[in-house]
């Protein structure tokens, strides 16, 4: 019996005295390219940040979205890269576009180019406009949007990427493309909580059309990541209210 026990001990595989520390996470070439593309699109490098490493840029993104700041592509951060979102770059808290771009003239006219295959889309877009109008004075009874439903490359330098990913984008007030809102034709748009709710996305994009940039406040209309909430009970969050008031003044607001 003692002999058998001794043999069992002798032939046990070698094990270290202390547990092996896991290797630090590193990005594969595929992950690195995917992450870099996301950062370049939504957290572009400016003069003050052009020398940041990929880890430092990941940290900036993690700070914006209130994630654990590790500089690594952990599961939480990796999931973020796959979530449906707006195609415009990100900022912090309520922001307005550089120079506080806004429409100087009211009332504003409305012009729409809406894909005719589904009447639901027209209804939802009208509803979204009415929701935004309720936040402005009666003198600003209509908002100036050119709404287009487009796929992939469509002439504005910001191609869509197919289903999920980038849902839509819009341009701040100005000439040419100013105020235009573009929606990805490949998305499965809906008026219910399944798939992508057109009202919520349209309301977000119209915020850009009015001059609002992205916010890092979770739950704000201008938060870049899509999440569903009931359009019937939707109210403009305080963060977005402050942003629109900065551009158009408190005296213009009705709630």
Automatic annotation (TrEMBL):
Pfam family, one: Peptidase_M10
Lineage: superkingdom: Eukaryota
Any one Gene Ontology cellular component term annotated for this protein: extracellular space
Binding site for Ca(2+) 3: 161-162, 164, 184, 187
Residues noted as binding Zn(2+) 1 in the record, renumbered to the chain: 154, 156, 169, 182
Domain Peptidase metallopeptidase as annotated: residue spans: 99-250
GO terms, biological process: collagen catabolic process; extracellular matrix organization; proteolysis; response to hypoxia; tissue remodeling
SUPFAM superfamilies cross-referenced by the UniProt entry: Metalloproteases ('zincins'), catalytic domain, PGBD-like
Keywords: Calcium, Hydrolase, Metal-binding, Metalloprotease, Protease, Signal, Zinc, Zymogen
Residues the entry annotates as binding Ca(2+) 2: 149, 178, 180
Cofactor section: Zn(2+); Ca(2+)
KW Hydrolase (keyword) present: yes
Residues that, per the record, bind Zn(2+) 2: 86, 204, 208, 214, 222
Cofactor note text: Binds 2 Zn(2+) ions per subunit. Can bind about 5 Ca(2+) ions per subunit.
MF GO annotations: metalloendopeptidase activity; zinc ion binding
Residues the entry annotates as binding Ca(2+) 1: 187
Catalytic residues identified in the record: 205
Signal peptide from the UniProt entry: 1-17
Recorded family membership: Belongs to the peptidase M10A family.
PANTHER family: 72 KDA TYPE IV COLLAGENASE, MATRIX METALLOPROTEINASE
Protein name: MMP7 protein
The gene coding this protein: Mmp7
């Amino acid at each position: 019996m003692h002999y058998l026990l001794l043999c069992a001990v002798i032939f046990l595989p070698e094990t270290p005295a202390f547990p092996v520390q896991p290797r630090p996470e590193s990005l594969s070439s595929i992950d690195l390219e995917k992450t870099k593309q996301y950062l370049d699109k939504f957290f572009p490098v400016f003069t003050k940040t052009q020398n940041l490493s990929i880890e430092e840029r990941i940290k900036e993104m993690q700070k914006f979205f209130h994630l654990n700041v590790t500089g690594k592509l952990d599961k939480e951060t990796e999931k973020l890269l796959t979530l449906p979102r707006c195609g415009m770059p990100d900022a912090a808290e309520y922001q307005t576009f550089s120079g506080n771009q806004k429409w100087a003239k009211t009332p504003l006219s409305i012009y729409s180019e809406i894909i005719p295959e589904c009447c639901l889309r027209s209804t939802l877009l009208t509803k979204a406009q009415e929701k935004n109008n309720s936040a402005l004075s009666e003198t600003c009874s209509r908002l100036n949007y050119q709404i287009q439903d487009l796929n992939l490359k469509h002439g504005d330098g910001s191609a869509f990427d197919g289903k999920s990913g980038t849902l839509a984008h819009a341009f701040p007030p100005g000439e040419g493309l100013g105020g235009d809102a573009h929606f990805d034709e490949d998305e499965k748009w809906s008026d219910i909580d399944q798939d992508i709710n057109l009202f919520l996305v349209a309301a977000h994009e119209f915020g850009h059309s009015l001059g609002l940039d992205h916010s890092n406040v979770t739950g704000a209309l201008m938060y870049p990541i899509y999440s569903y909430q009931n359009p019937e009970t939707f109210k403009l969050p305080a963060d977005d209210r402050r942003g629109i008031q900065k551009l158009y003044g408190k005296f213009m607001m009705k709630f």
